[in-house]
Design brief:
- The chain is α/β, with parallel strands linked by helices.
- It has 2 domains: 171 residues, Rossmann fold (3-Layer(aba) Sandwich); 137 residues, Nucleoside Triphosphate Pyrophosphohydrolase.
- Helix content is 32%, strand content 21%.
- The strands form 2 sheets. Strands 6, 7, 8, 9, 10, 11 and 12 form a 7-stranded mixed beta sheet that branches. Strands 3-2-1-4-5 form a 5-stranded parallel beta sheet, sandwiched between helices.
- The longest helix is centred in the middle third of the chain and has 19 residues.
- The two termini are 44 Å apart.
- The N terminus is likely disordered.
- It comes from Undibacterium cyanobacteriorum.
- Keywords: Nucleotidyltransferase, Transferase.
- Pfam families: CTP_transf_like (PF01467), NUDIX (PF00293).
Length: 360
């Protein structure tokens, strides 16, 4: 692997200069925190006396793309800062809504909640690639566009971590990309049980993508999912295998070549839960259908799902039994779903949120 040769000091040392803004905002996933991120933070600390770090993709289950919790990312960043700098920074976790407008509004709401008196806000960032378009979603803030240090790549950091045979040697390869403090943090983090599980998940994903690597075009997968509600409960399955083993999910799966979407949803629902209802009963209880097509919603590749919302309006729970690749099937109280957000596969919490207004 080629690694960066650009050098930025390992510490976020800030030369005191007059601040030109009330508050500086830095937005990122920081999975993990490399020297390009450190440079953004250094500039933000120069621009304003108070800095808000928006930690995106928070409250997820751990994945290969988002292995660190928001608390772990905050700790990783703090390891690179002095005590005085830590006093000037607030870390704000924000979930992915897979809805750009809703996400941008949530970020603005959080910023104003933390600094309600701020009149001059500076957004510090750089346009790395097409994914950086979110920086244009805050036109009422002053955008300070910084140099794009393209040699620093968090994806490459994660790849080295998950392919490591010896974590000490692998982290030393990243010396020009990560500070000593970050490397030390990552070495300790790799001792957690979550690391071994993610390595297994990473290898599975690599094998899955390799199977499609000879296709003439990047594959686009079509899936179906079912939200089945009754008596203030929803029907969930616990995944029995890769990917997302042990996570909660909606019953669903891939569309067969000669199958209509609604028929596929009912078939997958029955295969995974053995739901004891006639097809006609399900068809009569269909309330809504939504398409979920965010490019990053699935780690397996571009996957577009059609979610069918069935509201049974029964005063009892139809019999269910886990089958196919489901390890368990359960009628889950809707009131408990918010507390389970970090236990859901892919964007399934957000699919439920769209129909049930969980975070409204």
């Amino acid at each position: 692997m080629n690694v960066a040769t650009t050098v930025i000091p390992n510490e976020v040392n800030v030369t005191p200069i007059p601040h030109s803004q009330d508050v500086a905002v830095v937005i990122g996933r920081f999975q993990g925190f490399h020297l390009g991120h450190a440079e953004l933070l250094r500039i933000a600390l120069q621009k304003a006396p108070q800095v808000l770090v928006i930690l995106g993709s928070s409250f997820h289950a751990r994945t290969v793309r988002n292995p660190f919790t928001w608390q772990e990312r905050a700790a990783m960043i703090k390891a690179n800062l002095s005590a005085d700098e830590i006093e000037r920074i607030q870390f704000i976790p924000v979930r992915d809504y897979y809805d750009d407008q809703r996400w941008a509004q949530a970020v603005q709401n959080e910023v104003m909640r933390h600094v309600p008196q701020a009149k001059d806000i500076c957004l510090v960032g750089h346009f790395k690639d097409a994914s950086s378009y979110y920086l244009r979603r805050f036109p009422h803030w002053h955008l300070l566009e910084t140099e794009n240090h393209s040699n620093f790549d968090a994806t490459a950091v994660r790849r080295v971590m998950f392919e490591a045979e010896n974590i000490d040697i692998s982290l030393s390869v990243l010396e020009s990309m990560l500070s000593l403090e970050t490397r030390q943090y990552l070495k300790a983090w790799c001792q957690l049980p979550a690391y071994a599980a993610l390595v297994t998940e990473y290898k599975g994903l690599q094998a899955y993508k390799a199977a499609w690597s000879t296709a003439p075009y990047a594959p686009i997968f079509c899936t179906v999912d079912s939200v089945v509600k009754t008596n203030q409960h929803v029907l969930l399955i616990q995944r029995g295998g890769f990917p997302g083993k042990g996570l909660w999910a909606l019953p669903g799966g891939f569309l067969d070549p000669h199958e209509r979407l609604q028929r596929a949803a009912i078939r997958e629902l029955r295969e995974e839960t053995k739901l004891a209802l006639l097809d006609s009963t399900l068809e009569a209880s269909l309330v809504d259908v939504k398409v979920f097509d965010h490019p990053d919603r699935s780690q397996r590749g571009r996957t577009i799902t059609h979610a069918f919302f069935f509201d049974l309006n029964l005063d009892h729970f139809p019999e269910i039994e886990a089958d196919d690749d489901a390890a368990a099937a359960k009628w889950m109280p809707i009131a408990e779903l918010n507390a389970m957000e970090d236990q859901f596969f892919d964007d399934h919490f957000h699919i439920l949120d769209q129909f049930l207004k969980l975070t409204a």
